[in-house]
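pipeline: protein-struct stage 2 | run 1193 | EAL domain-containing protein
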Amino acid sequence: MTDAQHRPDMLEKISRYATFYWPTLIVSIAVFVAVYIFDSQAEKSHIEDRRVAVADKLGPIRAQLEGNIKSDIKLLQGLAAVMETEPNINQTRFAEIGRRLFSRPMRLTDISIVDSTTTTFIYPYLPNQPLVGDVFSSDPEDIKAASSAEKNNTFVVARPHISSLNKRSMKIFYPFNYGEGLAGVDNKLPAAANIRRLLVGTIEVDRLFRESGLTDPSLDLNIALYDNIDRKGAPIFDNGPLTQAALLTVTVNIGAQSWVLAASPKNVSNAAAKDASTRRLLMFCLAFMILGPILWVAKLLEERQTNIAELNEQKRELRSVSQRLQLALDASQIGVWELDIASGRLHWDARMRQLYAMNPDISETDIEVWRDRIHPEDREATSKRFDNAIRTNSDYSTQFRIITDTGEVRHLRAFGAVYRDAHFRKKIVGVNWSITADVKMQEDLQKAKTALELQNHALEDARRAMEYSSLHDPLTGLANRRYLDKHLAKIQPAHASDGMAAVLHIDLDRFKDINDTLGHAAGDTMLRHVANQINALTNEDDFAARIGGDEFVVVCQSPTGMAEEQAKAMGEALITAINQPIPWEGQECRVGASVGIALIPPSLDSMELALINADIALYEAKRRGKNRLEFFSDTLKEATFATKRTADAILRSLENDEFIPYFQPQFDAHSLKIIGVEALARWQHPEHGLLSPASFLTVAESLNVVAEIDKAILKQTLKAAKRWEENHLDTLHVSVNISAQRLFDDGLMERLASIPLPAGGLSFELLESIAFDDKDAAASTAIDQIKALGIEIEIDDFGTGYSSILSLLKLSPRRLKIDRQLTLPILESKPQRRLIGSIVDIGKSLGIDIIAEGVETMQHAEILRDLGCHILQGYALAKPMSEDDLFALMTQTHASRKISATG
């Protein structure tokens, strides 16, 4: 609705309200004007009363103040008269006059005579002696007052100030004439006569104000004293803020000077406010008593007019509603009935007679006629509901069937409510409408629903079967990986307390052997056997699944909070049960089980991590010998991740040729001349720098890339040897370590046959830690083939591994290297020396040269040489070095030899 449409409505409301309330408004204005005038007059009268009270109290104070100051001035006038009669006065005489003057109580604290601006005499003398002969005052107000007194030849009272004794004081300057001049302190007379001088008296201000009544504690006035008629500047006395409403000022006359004494009552605002509040409350009550009845009458007139308007509007709305109701009843085919309960007469409209197939000319009938029309099966229940509604005065609502004269069955819906008419007769009125079509439709829908439910049951059975198949392993009947993921998703780690759940990851040992040797049928039998054992050892709170070929997972939940103990017991029981043999086609089949266990802590981010943790623990169980269980820990996780990072870095470094040889020279035991080098594998790590085999060999073995590392070291070593030859350096014998993986590589011989051997010869060092005795035939064959290619064999780390003396006869190595663990103690241990001597003797008897490593000092070198070792290797002689460093060393040695030969 726009503003233009709102405006007439607003004007109409204003006009209607004005009709009833304008007399009230006029009376209200008159009452409030009268109240305001009365309040203003009362306020003025109150203030005037307070001013009169202030004047009564302020008059005596002014008189007392004038009297006190004038008495002090009179005292100074008398003293001046004495001074004029004693022209030869000196300090002694002045002090005597002062003592007489001060022999009685007074407000003066000291008196002095000022010549020009200098103090000539003063009393009391002793405390004020420094002032004699000095300027009488440095205060501008004192100087101004003294000048005014001399100029006008009258006394002047200066403005109070803080004295040298830290007290408030004010000075009175009184001019007078010397007769013949005054004698000074030295009793000498001034040269001039009739000289005008000033008699100065100092008044104690606080005492003056106290004796004048200004500080009287019983005085309920705030007072301010000004030393000028205009009240400019700060007052020389005040005891509180002044209230302008009741302010009164009086003039204090001090000769030619005029002071102003201003005063106002204390707490005048609070008292005035309290009086005004009481007065205004009474006036408000009076105004309310006048305006209340007037407003009440106006309100009654307005309500009467409003009620008349509403009644007219209701009549119009009632006619409109009646018309709409009749149209709605006709359109909806609803029949209306009314029953007079006392007489039993029932009134039906035309639609009701149509519903019951009654004579359209009969508008009234008996209640029993209605009962007879009801279907016999519904009659009793419908009648009871109807009678109960009448008895309890409650609403009546029901559904029933009727039978017409033609035998047609109709379904009706009825609703009624009990009420009393204008004559207080109890009646019930209601409506009926036919729901025959609705009932028929509901019956058809029910039949369709029944058929649909049967179809849905069949579909649900099929869905359950499909869902079961999608969530379970068809071979074992256990849950599959998908079902496991759904189950883990229901477990919230943050809601699980410590020790409430654990994951067991089970992997079968030797299962592949059974599959490969006995076939998949045997393997399937073993898997079902394992599933049966798992089902037997788990309870209803646990969850078991097969997630791969021979991998199973059990989620162990412990309501008692003992998941770790329960998981450990279950893991041990599973290992024992799975290890039990089962018959297969006349023979026993056995598999083992490795179990990794991970507890589920509340801090776990996702359940997927629990599976990963269990897998890490399973890997550790496999690594430590299989057929056992291991628990996951943060240390194990960190070690696994570190191994993973190392493994990834090893694979990258193999691609980037970051495994390089470092060469440690080998020396002739007698001449200490370099006769060979051992190529040692080093890892040029891109982040951690140069690393020894101890940092990567174990991981490399697990990756089966040790042979690749050996291959890379051999390739670079041969390249370095070729560089020596091309630069005409000494031909050195080269030793390269070879691993078991490399030794038993089927393609090794073919690759070795295609490479050129260095001029100084090539040896493969076999680690004695390799158990050659277990692979006697294969090792002998491989070593014979290597020897046939012109490559010599050395046994490394002799004395610390598996090889027996018999293996030396079978392998026939060219050299054997005594491990540094045997050579280091020979400086102090004679048994150790004898042991090395025995090894040397064995080597000599078999034609094997002896290399001693771990030569840490030259003393080691001498002892090992004396024991018969042929070749020495160790830090005392040379450390492992890069190819370039070795090349520089060989170049330097070669140059030194040439210089020695020509010299």
